[in-house]
Amino acid sequence: MSRTVTIVGAAGIPCGRVQTAPGLDLQVLEHEVLAGCVLDAVAQAGIDKASIDAMVFCHPRPYTQQLYFGTFMANYLRLPSNGVVMEVVGNGMTGGLAFDQAAQMVASGRAEVALALGVNFETAIGSAEHMNRSMRATGDVAFHTPFGFTPISWYAMDAMRYMHETGATRAEIASVAVKNRRHAALNPLAQYREPVTLDEVLAQRPIVEPFGLFEVPPRSDGAACIVLASEAAARALGRPHARLIGRGFHHEGSHQISEVPSDMIAFNAAVRAGAQAYQAAGLQPADVDVAELYAPCTIVEVLVSEALGLTPRGRGAAEAAAGETSLGGRIPICTSGGLIARGHPPFITPLYSYIEVFEQLTRGAGERQVPGANIAMAACELGNYNAALVHLLEAAA
Amino acid sequence: MNINPMPRLVMTGTRPFPPAQSAFTQRFWQGLDEGQFLATHCPHCDRLAFPPKPFCPHCWQRSVQWRAIEPRGVLYSATTIHAAPKVFGAEAPYQVAIVDLRASLRIATRLLGNTPTAQALDHEVELVVLAYEDGPLFAARLPDSP
After folding, report:
1. Mean pLDDT of chain A
2. Nearest-angstrom CA–CA distance, B19 and A146
3. Secondary structure of chain B as H, E, C letters
4. pLDDT digits (tens, 9 = 90+) for A126-182
């Protein structure tokens, strides 16, 4: 007894620097900002407040003053629920898990309408200070962290291995950043909207080799709310919506690296999650019209596009450089600008993917609109794609 | 199999982020201080595990034994970290690596020597002990490194 799930509304603030420094007289409060997103998304959907029966929150950053954030928000919004009010966490996948759990609430019939929502404020904390904490999330505190691995150092090692195995060039991989800036220029929610050239990307100060500043994610704050509804509720609203038609998840049972040597750059979790989603939807990779892929570094977009079958194995960087993954290309990827240019508030980043997918499928993406977009994919991950969560959606009127 | 002790490099100062140790895993760090690289071995399914665990992650049997493994392997990947966590700031830039040991275990560690390039991948490396004032760490090095 599983019901079809739809997205009927989605709203977020532009990614950027929003968090106020500790100690300022006037603070920007996370709950005020998120409540604004809820009201925007619910107004866009045209639903009644009373029809909402579940809220699944992204767990906020440890820097957030208000603890027990989800239950506090239920009070702040004065929203009683019969379904569930809860917070989820899963590193970069957190926003995807919130969406997935909200979808489960609707699919199971426990809620007619459910919200997946969250706020991630962290930019008032310097990067070096922030990494003192995040390095403990992306490594074993006994056997990795003492060596100084940073979250994105694992992706950098993916890039080194990829170049070694495929002969892909630095320029081909870096072209992903140029493409994503070009897309972000058309997205009002994006943090970095000025176009950059390939030479500028390659000339940036090194962060983690081979990457310079423009091939790694920025620090971002953000807040977003997605409104999910049963298909019956969506039809009653009479507005364009996005129908969830496939879902896949796989955790490979390893953390950053597998102690049993494996092909690290195959992104096996994405391969398996993608296969599940394609099978559920009865679709092939070639059927996808637009894809929002969680990719903190240029190489990650290359590797996950290959793992999900959107580009041929070993050719993802070359295809990006040839424009195949750009707006107007064969399979536009990260039309929002992706993590690198749209922005990356980590605990809610996938929520911005669902906003983009919703806008593309309801013809609301403005200058970024992929003409005739009917099937869209959203994928997110944690670790070094040790786990992947994939959703396929289609346009519905 | 007779395994030679790992080379020992004396380091000044203390470890920036001392590894968390348990009553079980302290055997690994004691062994490392003596020049041995220890993994846990499962007599039930005959597989090795690293990091060492008080059970076999493959078959979940608890009767594991310590086993010294050969501190050699090949460089699977590597990078140089320029933007470092605050506690490692004084060491930046520094190199880290993923190494596939001959015992078919993949580990992550520091890499000593010059900036890695994609050409250095798949080359042989050896593990060495970094003897800090407060205890040991380990690192990989290419044969031509100091």
Report:
1. 97
2. 6
3. CCCCCCCEEECCCCCCCCCCCCCCCHHHHHHHHCCCCEEEEECCCCEEECCCCCCCCCCCCCCCEEEECCCEEEEEEEEEECCCCHHHHHHCCEEEEEEEECCCCEEEEEEECCCCCHHHCCCEEEEEEEEECCEEEEEEECCCCC
4. 999 999 999 999 999 999 999 999 999 999 999 999 999 999 999 999 999 999 999
User: How many alpha carbons lie under 13 Å from residue A47 in its C-beta half-sphere?
Assistant: 29
User: At A372, is the pLDDT very low, low, confident or very high (cuts 50, 70, 90)?
Assistant: very high
- Report the C-alpha gap between A119 and A221 in whole angstroms: 8
How large is the angle between the packed helices A30-45 and A69-76, nearest 10 degrees?
A: 60
Q: Is B88 on the interface with A (CB under 8 A)?
A: yes
Closest approach of A231 to chain B, Cα-based (Å): 43
Query: Could you tell me the domains of chain A?
Result: 5-125+219-237 (3.40.47.10)
Asked if residues A216 and A208 have their Cβ atoms less than 8 Å apart, the reply is yes
In words, the CATH class of domain B71-146 is mainly beta
- Range(s) within chain B of domains with CATH label 2.40.50: 71-146
Measured in angstroms, the CA of A129 and the nearest CA of chain B are apart by 5
Give the tokens for residue A341.
């240019």
Give percent above pLDDT 70 in chain A: 100
Interface test with A, best of B45, B79, B82, B96 (most A CBs within 10 A): B79
Amino acid B113: pLDDT: 82
Q: What stretch of H or E contains A358?
A: helix A349-361
Spatial contact of A260 and B106, defined as CB atoms under 8 Å apart: yes
Residue range A314-342, pLDDT digits in tens: 999 999 999 999 999 999 999 999 999 99
* Chain B residue nearest residue A260, CA to CA: B105
Burial of A232 (0-12, 13-18, 19+ CB in 10 A): exposed
Q: For chain A, what percent of residues have pLDDT higher than 90?
A: 98
3-class secondary-structure state, position A38: helix
Interface predicted TM-score (ipTM) over 0.85: yes
Do the chains contact at A260 and B104, CB–CB below 8 Å? yes
Asked whether residue B94 carries a pLDDT value surpassing 60, the answer given is yes
A208 closest CB neighbour out of B20, B81, B109: B81
pLDDT tens sequence across A205-254: 999 999 999 999 999 999 999 999 999 999 999 999 999 999 999 999 99
Q: Which residues of A touch B20 (CB under 8 A)?
A: 141-142
> CB of B17 within 8 Å of any CB in chain A?
yes
Q: Enumerate the residues of chain B whose CB falls inside 8 A of the CB of residue A146.
A: 15-19, 137
pLDDT digits (tens, 9 = 90+) for A12-36: 999 999 999 988 999 999 999 999 9
Distance CA(A234)–CA(A160), nearest Å, equals: 47
The whole-model pTM stands at: 0.97
